[in-house]
Design brief:
The chain is α/β, with parallel strands linked by helices and about 325 residues long. It contains nine helices and 17 strands.
Length: about 325
């Protein structure tokens, strides 16, 4: 019987530090990510891929704002929807190519995915989710004044816009994704944390101005699918405490209690490792079997417990 893994990759995995984020760069990075995942599939794993979209959604918003006088603009939910298709397309053709190189005849599909949120979630009054490119302090201040953006400093890398990030309540395409997995089709879903929607009392669905954290919604989907392994792929090879300090220490193995202790002590910033650690803790505490946080370059070593941070109860 094949084991199932959900792999959540960051939007920054497709746009690396120092890159402009051209389509050519993103495709090259998509192939690098897909190569590692394809190796995992060759081992016999069934895989669901979710992904972030921070830089891409930010770029979509910029295009929308600058062209507002000539074409219709996009709301945040529409930006998530369009980037789900854009990133999903790049990952799909990259996965199909890398699988063919390994002699694997596997189908890959992209599922546009909506996630229901509570319209009364306090996050709507306190935006915290970073989105889009990094700016200098001067440029960020200008955008705050001219466009009314909420701006925060993000992990000492610059300044970014922040938007509401409500809690994911329900993955609306959960049953569809289950059926696709049963067909042994590699599934790319929940892009950008899912299209944020509100379910009205009459059963209708309406989009809302928000971005859902992809790690939190990925944990929700992983639990709903009852996967054997939840992997969060980031730009760090493992989780560190006292990060970038003289006494920095990597964590190879950790229980949810240990991670929670470090989280409460402030080791994991909200704009970077915080949501990832929080999400694996949620997954395990809700009955999940095992989680790993690592980079896609270390994925194969992580499966052999030679890299990454391995989290259990």
């Amino acid at each position: 019987m094949a084991y199932t893994a959900l792999i959540a990759i960051g939007g920054n995995s497709l746009i690396r530090a120092g890159e402009r984020g051209t389509i050519e760069e993103q495709l090259a990075n998509a192939h690098a990510t897909a190569k590692s995942i394809a190796q995992m599939i060759k081992m016999g794993w069934r895989v669901v891929i979710t992904h972030g979209n921070g830089p891409q959604a930010g770029a979509a918003l910029i295009r929308s704002e600058r062209a507002a006088g000539e074409v219709y603009t996009h709301t945040l939910d529409m930006c998530v929807a369009t980037t789900q298709s854009e990133i999903g397309y790049m990952l799909q053709i990259a996965m199909e190519h890398e699988l063919r190189l390994l002699g694997l005849n596997k189908l890959v599909t992209v599922v546009p995915t909506m996630v229901a949120v509570d319209p009364n979630d306090p996050a709507f009054k306190k935006p915290t989710k970073p989105i889009g490119p990094f700016y200098s302090k001067e440029v960020a201040q200008e955008k705050k004044e001219k466009l009314g953006w909420d701006i925060v400093e993000d992990a000492a890398r610059g300044y970014r816009r922040v938007v509401p990030s409500p809690e994911p309540m329900e993955v609306l395409q959960l049953e569809v994704i289950k059926k696709i997995i049963d067909l042994d089709v590699i599934t790319i879903a929940l892009g950008g944390g899912g299209i944020p929607v509100v379910k009205r009392e009459d059963g209708s669905i309406v989009g809302c101005e928000a971005v859902i954290d992809k790690d939190r919604s990925s944990a929700l989907l992983a639990y709903g699918l009852n996967v054997d392994l939840f992997i969060i792929s980031t730009d760090a090879d493992q989780v560190y405490v006292n990060y970038k300090k003289p006494d920095m220490k990597g964590l190879r193995y950790a229980t949810t209690q240990e991670l929670q202790k470090y989280y409460d002590e402030g080791h994991f910033p909200a704009g970077s490792m915080g949501p990832k650690v929080e999400s694996v803790i949620r997954f395990i505490k809700n009955g999940g079997k095992k989680a790993i946080i690592t980079s896609f370059e270390c994925l194969m070593d992580a499966l052999e417990e030679k890299a990454g941070t391995h989290i259990s109860n």
